Amino acid sequence: MDQELKELGDHIAQETAGAVTACHVRLGELMLECAAGKLLPLLVFLRDDPKCLFKQLIDICGVDWPERAKRFDVVYNLLSLVNNQRIRIKVATDESTPVPSAAPVFNAAGWFERETYDLYGVWFSDHPDLRRILTDYGFEGHPLRKDFPLTGFVELRWDDVQKRVVYEPVKLAQEFRRFDFLSPWEGARQALPGDEKAQGKTGAN
Q: Domains plus CATH for the chain?
């Protein structure tokens, strides 16, 4: 199986004139790396070539690598029902360089790209309607970036007096709590039955 996928990867790399910068077979799937400028011709080839026929776009998602200059990977997952195969394409980009929208090739790309923009801040050029899709109006930042604070910046709630949704700075309900596992309220002093890590007699009272 891996040999067949490797041969398919070699075929794609040869026929797409340098669009594929790297090819790997991992976990029984073919993974290609592509430069952003050659993404659309590669997707058209994968969709239409008789040996590929990856006609279904299953998902577009992002991966954040903050230590890299091109910190984002945009990942495209395609499926060929005819050949019963999957393929993954990765495109690296930074915070300011847009990736060409795949919407002209796959209609399903529109909402997937909006989600990637919303959660990671990746820009897609020539997108027909690039705006947030999961977070609320006025939301600041992109919540799946690794430098996004876990508590967020603002919280929203329904104010019954004002009869509207109000935004407020995040306030933690309590300070960081240090758990005392030796406390009888938070942990048993005796060894519990079945606890293989317990020292001493198991099941002692």
A: 2-144 (3.30.460.80)
